[in-house]
TrEMBL record:
Protein name per the record: Folic acid synthesis protein FOL1
Gene3D superfamilies: 3.30.1130.10, 7,8-Dihydro-6-hydroxymethylpterin-pyrophosphokinase HPPK, Dihydropteroate synthase-like
Family the entry assigns: In the central section; belongs to the HPPK family. In the C-terminal section; belongs to the DHPS family.
GO CC annotation terms, alphabetical: mitochondrial envelope
Taxonomy, superkingdom: Eukaryota
Provenance organism: Ogataea parapolymorpha (strain ATCC 26012 / BCRC 20466 / JCM 22074 / NRRL Y-7560 / DL-1)
Length: 739
């Protein structure tokens, strides 16, 4: 009735071209004979036409009847039910020619969804009536298990990846060939990055299908990160772009090719980072022998980390390890360097390997070699397990700046340690200070109490003639031991600002007899000697001193660093300026230019100046051969500091503990991460300035300062009043360190 009404009124039709009008059929079930095999398909088509007049007249004669179209497709299916098409492409061409373009459409698309045991297959064809086919092949959800990633667990066990390929074709193709070759290649691959994987799958696609001219490859790792459906990357390349790039081959399952960059090891000097560890015999002795052997082989030790005691990680039924890292300079190529360190392990220190990860007197591993990526059947650089080992990353991050990137992951190494640290228990790594007799002093958990034993008549707070008597000194030490002090600090020369300095001979006469008797009576007691003189330090170590406490940080004797390096005992690097007579006139830190030093955080003038000067001294220490694991840092409260400046150093102590600097001249990096920090507020002048009390009446003020030092991270506090300060340390630890 409506059509009759339209015709009776003879509405004029204004001819317009509507190129976006589409008639569609979605997912028509179709079965075609392809290569002699019955192939179930799902067929969809869009016919681009112009049904402007049909919509105006509401007359189907001016459009394409999808019912007729469906019938024609079924007729085509029946017609060729016993005729085999060479390929899906030939089938599509037949449908275009005999069915789709028998209508009045100008352009059509034809999509086949095909069942495949390994993935979803979609073939899209589009064609103008007077031109050739455009073909797009889509392979979705192709699942493969493969080795992918940089972490050890990723290198040892396959994990699933899901691939999607989109290939633009100019001619025929074989779905089975593309799928099988892709699965075979990916399953045998051992890529470290998904970026390398997708690029090489694209290369393979062009090799497999000569008619492909553009390819997009996406890879998803569904189990890489929890609480997500997966993470991944994609890449799109043309054949022309990939023409000069060879496909990475995997000749064996043990060999991992260099994928991130082309690394050519050139002749010359190389910076290498080694991990070092021991859990058999005298661990410190073994480590020192190994370092000496490296030097004999022209492998120069440039810097060392702290040492950490840690439980075994893989095979658990063995003694704890002492681990660290060292930075060396060598002209040896990686394989030659490996040969040298294996010689040190097995021939010099007698390592016998009964099984992997078992006990050993020494273990040396190449962690990093310049920025190189190096792979051979017996050596992988960067070390494959470095990112899962706290006992490697913690000491390594003491030696490399925060912006140094891992050569494979392209992420700062410090970021890797930051992530691993979240899952590392507080007691899993215990830093230690070497003592005489190959003993070790652990620190970093409870606060260590260093008790002052002055054998001087003129110290600022406890000077007395009785201090020079050996019996008096031994009685005091007995009291200290009974009170539970951790370190006794023996001093024979007052270092109070402006004090008169006794001769070296006088200091030796005061210190050595007392030291000798203390060591005989208390063989396990940790003994420190407070001196800035190298000869006093040497003589004291010969009699059993464990630590040299140098308030000058080497300023007052240029032979001190050499003496400490030779002894191998602990060394308190104190901060001071000038000398005993002039230090109080040198407390202006505002006028000091930073020099060619890059600091990795912002600091006040006082904290920045103290840290920078300690950092420069630390660099000189290492040049002289002192190991980082020997060093204890002391910011020197009251030494070239006014009262307000000493208070600031206590208040901002965490900034010192986290201090990092890079010399723009030498290129050497210095950090105070995990170094033992000693604070000596006891009876100091700044406490008297606040309380108005003389030195001997400053116990309560000292207690407050000691508690503040502990709260802000001090590892060792040096005190006169050892009995009450022991209680202060116990309570402060319970509050601030939950011990």
């Amino acid at each position: 009735m409506f059509n009759a009404l339209v015709r009776s009124r003879r509405l004029p039709f204004m001819r317009r071209i509507h190129t976006g009008d589409t008639v569609s059929i979605k997912n028509l079930r179709y079965c075609g004979l392809i290569n002699g095999r019955q192939t179930p398909l799902s067929l969809s088509t869009d016919l681009i036409t112009d049904f402007g007049q049909a919509s105006t007249d509401d007359d189907l004669r001016y459009s394409i009847n999808y019912a007729v179209l469906s019938r024609d497709l079924r007729s085509f299916e029946k017609k060729y039910s016993r005729s085999s098409f060479r390929s899906l492409l030939q089938l599509g061409e037949g449908i275009f020619n005999e069915v789709l373009f028998s209508t009045n459409c100008r352009r059509a698309t034809l999509t086949f969804n095909m069942d495949h045991q390994d993935c979803d297959v979609i073939v899209e064809m589009s064609r103008e009536k007077s031109s050739g086919l455009n073909i797009t092949l889509k392979l979705d959800n192709l699942g493969v298990n493969t080795i992918i990633g940089v972490f050890k667990e990723e290198r040892l066990a396959e994990q699933p990846v899901v691939l999607n390929l989109v290939m633009e074709m100019a001619g025929d193709f074989s779905v089975d060939k593309i799928v099988s070759s892709t699965k075979n290649y990916v399953s045998k691959s051992q890529f470290k990055t998904v970026e390398a994987l997708v690029l090489n799958v694209a290369k393979l696609a062009f090799q497999t299908t000569e008619n492909a001219h553009r390819c997009k490859v996406s890879v998803l790792k569904p189990k890489a990160i929890g609480e997500t459906d997966g993470v991944g990357v994609s890449v799109t390349r043309s054949r022309a772009e990939m023409k000069s790039q060879p496909l990475i081959d995997f000749p064996s399952s043990e060999y991992v090719p260099n994928l991130s960059k082309t690394t050519t090891v050139r002749d010359g000097k190389h910076t290498v980072y080694l991990a070092i560890g021991s859990n058999q015999g005298s661990q410190l002795t073994n480590i020192n022998i190994a370092l000496d052997e490296l030097a004999k082989r022209n492998i120069k030790v440039k810097a060392t980390s702290s040492l950490f005691r840690s439980a075994p990680m893989y095979y658990l039924n063995q003694p704890d390890f002492v681990n660290g890292c060292i930075k060396v300079e060598t002209e040896l190529h990686p394989q030659d360097l490996l040969n040298q360190i294996k010689e040190i392990e097995y021939q010099v220190l007698g390592r016998v390997k009964h099984f992997d990860n078992g006990p050993r007197p020494i273990d040396l591993d190449i962690i990093l070699y310049d920025e190189a990526i190096y792979n051979s059947p017996n050596l992988t650089i960067p070390h494959m397990s470095m990112l899962e080992r706290p006992f490697v990353l913690a000491p390594l991050c003491q030696l490399v700046p925060p912006d140094m990137l891992h050569p494979v992951t392209a992420e700062p190494i410090h970021n890797h340690w930051h992530q691993l640290r979240k899952t590392t228990k507080a007691d899993e790594l215990q830093p230690v200070i070497p003592l005489s007799g190959a003993r070790m002093l652990p620190y970093g958990s409870r606060t260590l109490l260093m008790s002052i034993l002055n054998v001087t008549p003129d110290s600022f707070s406890d000077g007395a003639a009785a201090n020079l008597q050996i019996e008096h000194a031994l009685s005091r030490v007995e009291q200290m031991v009974a009170a539970g002090v951790d370190i006794v600090d023996l001093g024979g020369c007052s270092t109070r600002p402006g004090s008169e300095q006794v001769s070296e001979a006088e200091e030796l006469d005061r210190v050595l007899p007392v030291l000798e008797q203390i060591r005989k009576q208390f063989p396990e007691l940790v003994l420190s000697v407070d001196t800035y003189r190298a000869e006093v330090a040497r003589a004291s170590v010969r009699l059993g001193a464990d630590i040299i406490n140098d308030v000058s940080g080497g300023l007052l004797d240029d032979k001190m660093y050499e003496s400490v390096a030779q002894s191998g005992v602990g060394y308190v690097l104190g901060h001071m300026r000038g000398n005993i007579a002039t230090m109080n006139t040198l407390s202006n830190y505002d006028e000091v230019a930073p020099g060619r030093i890059k600091q990795f955080s912002d600091y006040t003038a006082v904290m920045g100046g103290v840290c920078r000067e300690l950092g420069v001294a630390f660099e000189k220490l290492q040049e002289a051969g002192v190991r980082r694991w020997q060093v204890i840092v002391d910011p020197g409260l009251g030494f070239a500091k006014k009262a307000e400046q000493s208070l600031e150093l206590i208040r901002d102590l965490q900034k010192l503990r986290q201090y990092r600097q890079l010399s723009l001249e030498s290129g050497e990096y210095v950090s105070f991460d995990d170094l033992a920090v000693l604070m000596g507020p006891s009876r100091k002048q700044f406490i008297g300035r606040i309380t108005g009390k003389p030195p001997k009446d400053r116990a309560f003020g000292t207690a407050a300062a000691v508690s503040a030092c502990i709260a802000n991270g001090a590892d060792i506090v040096r005190v006169h009043d050892f009995e009450p300060m022991k209680d202060v340390a116990l309570v402060a630890d319970s509050i601030y360190r939950t011990l």
